[in-house]
Predict the 3D structure of the following.
Amino acid sequence: MIKMEKAELSDAKILLEVQKEAFLKYAQKYGDFDSNPYHMDLHRMEFNIKYHYGQYYKLLDENTLAIIGGLFCFELDEKPIMKIAQFYLKSEYQHLGYGTFILNELFNRNPEVKTWYVDTIMQEEYNVEFYQHLGFEIIDVEEEHEGLSFVTFMKKTNKK
């Protein structure tokens, strides 16, 4: 199983390495695009971990306690609206149900959030289906360049 803990500044280098590994395939497949987290530098990772209006979690293998992924989300305008900006797992931990577990844990830790947003690559059908499975609905599609479009999802929660 996976554990989800608040990231510390001391985790920044390892989180950045894991993030680069996870997003390299998109850089190779779709070419260079500015928003690819593969291009993030250490300074930006540290900024995100410290960001007052954000939450950065390290995802740990429960057995080894090794960092195997990360999740960063932040408030949009006000507390009940949040955006998932980066969510990644090492490839050997993907497609095993851990992503669903982690996002449900995020939702449970933030009961006051009424609206969630997330973007992903439209051409990555598994990612699109993953977010739809969790109750996200497509609200926008934007073409970055030929062969690469981003889809924006929104999920409304009914928690009182």
